[in-house]
Amino acid sequence: MLENRKLGASEIKIAPLILGTNVFGWTTDEAMAFKLLDYFTEQGFNAIDTADVYSKWVDGHVGGESELAIGKWLKQSGKRDKVVLATKLGAELAPDKKGLSKKYIISAAEASLKRLNTDYIDLYQSHYDDSETPIEETLAAYDSLIKAGKIRIIGASNFTPERLEESLQVSRDNNLPIYQTFQPEYNLYDRADFEENIRPITSANNLSVISYFSLASGFLTGKYRSLDDIKDSKRAGFVEKYFTDRGFNILNALDNVAARHETTAGSIALAWVIQQPGITAPIASATNIDQLADLIKATTITLDHEDITLLATASSL
Question: What is a GO molecular function of this protein (predicted)?
Answer without folding.
Answer: oxidoreductase activity
